Amino acid sequence: MTLILGIDPGSRITGYGIVRDNGRRCEYIASGCIRTGTGELSERLNAVFSGIHEIISSYHPDLMSIEQVFMARNADSALKLGQARGAAIVAATQAGLAVSEYSATQIKSAIVGSGRAAKEQVQMMVMHLLQLTQKPQIDASDALAAALCHAHHRQTLIAHDLSSAKSRGGRLRLTVR
Amino acid sequence: MTLILGIDPGSRITGYGIVRDNGRRCEYIASGCIRTGTGELSERLNAVFSGIHEIISSYHPDLMSIEQVFMARNADSALKLGQARGAAIVAATQAGLAVSEYSATQIKSAIVGSGRAAKEQVQMMVMHLLQLTQKPQIDASDALAAALCHAHHRQTLIAHDLSSAKSRGGRLRLTVR
User: Fold this and answer.
1) Where is the active site (chains A, B) (predicted)?
2) What pLDDT tens digit does each residue of chain B (177 aa) get?
3) I need a surface site. Which of A68, A71, B25, B101 has the fewest CB within 10 A?
4) How far from the centroid of its chain's Cα atoms is residue B45's Cα?
5) CATH code for position A83
6) Does the pTM of the predicted model rise above 0.90?
């Protein structure tokens, strides 16, 4: 059992989502948004750090998953996004969590099966995979998608380990972390 | 007496500088660089956070001064700079420090007297103002310049308070914070 915290940082809203991965499927635990308000930059970044810190203290996730940013829209929004990402990532590392980064294509492929899926398709599949009856807010949904991508990646690695152990005819030495 | 921590964050090197402001002039206390290494993003950002945290624990500065970024070169470098800034700023706010931001023009004007001064002129004036015999590394020098700018701003405010109190013929109610 691994508890995965997915986050989708932003300068105004940082989405978060937590799923429990039992190695074969994932269960929804929680999701939501940290709203940073309209205060000074340092207060807004502190809200991201403190929000993530609080979530980690409440749910004790094993690791954090986050979407990698390859191409930001423009320099100004990239700076703002970077600041929120920096605050969120250090909140995780300071709590001792490993951080995994996945590209948008990896996340879309893991959730929908196509790296070119639309945002709405990802949101629908997140709802389906986690058996949600209500549509989560888009930032929370993106955070859950990052968490599910890590679970998918992990399950694929486990399946690969199993099959290669079988093909070697050796004993299973599977360690689920 | 106010101890000011100036920082100049970057994705590879974060400069820092500490000056003691006695209300009329500034004394050099320390400066240096936090090198973030070549590890994973989360490790590098954690190095910035932990480095700033360590400096604050050692010197107990009263506040932090940082250069405001208006125009980053491009989206990719803006994202990297933003991440380092985010990690550095939350390290200060988590330690209870207020963060003041100054534009490059404000810093140059405070140090050299012209908002269009070259980087080398700023460095020379930082050395002169703090009576340094050795040239500090450029990131450390930029951090000291941010700290000196805050001191200049503070001294100007104090001078303004004094003169307006005199002109009102009232009692001085000067509080040096």
Assistant:
1) 8, 67, 139
2) 999 999 999 999 999 999 999 988 899 999 999 999 999 999 999 999 999 999 999 999 999 999 998 776 788 899 999 999 999 999 999 999 999 999 999 999 999 998 888 989 999 999 999 999 999 999 999 999 999 999 998 877 666 666 665 555 434 333 333
3) A71
4) 19
5) 3.30.420.10
6) no
Q: Which two structure tokens, joined as six digits, stand for B114?
A: 């012209």
DSSP label of A12: S
Residues A168, A15: contact at Cβ < 8 Å? no
Ramachandran quadrant class, B108 (left: phi over 0; alpha: psi -120 to 50; beta: rest):
alpha
Is A8 one of the annotated binding-site residues? yes
Residues of chain A with C-beta less than 8 angstroms from the C-beta of B76: 71-72, 78
Cβ contacts below 8 Å, chain A against chain B, sum to 122
Single out the residue of B83, B30, B23, B90 nearest to residue B61, CA to CA: B30
| Number of domains forming the structure of chain A | 1
- Residues on chain B bordering chain A, Cβ-to-Cβ distance under 8 angstroms: 40-43, 45-46, 48-49, 69, 71-94, 98-99, 101
Q: Does an H or E element contain A61, and which?
A: none
In whole angstroms, what is the distance from residue B42 CA to residue B17 CA? 24
Q: Which residues of chain B lie closer than 8 angstroms to A81, CB-CB?
A: 79, 82
- DSSP letters for B83-122: HHHHHHHHHHHHTT-EEEEE-HHHHHHHHTS-TT--HHHH
Domain limits for position A22: 2-173
Beta-sheet strands, E only, within chain A: 2-8, 13-21, 26-35, 63-67, 98-102
Tokens at A4, concatenated: 């995965």
Which member of A81, A92, A99 has the closest CB to residue B82? Answer: A81
Radius of gyration, CA atoms only, chain B: 17
Binning chain B into helix, strand and coil, the percentages to the nearest 5 are 50, 20, 30
| Shortest Cα–Cα distance, B155 to chain A (Å) | 23
Q: Look at A94 and B41 and tell me if their CB atoms are within 8 Å.
A: no
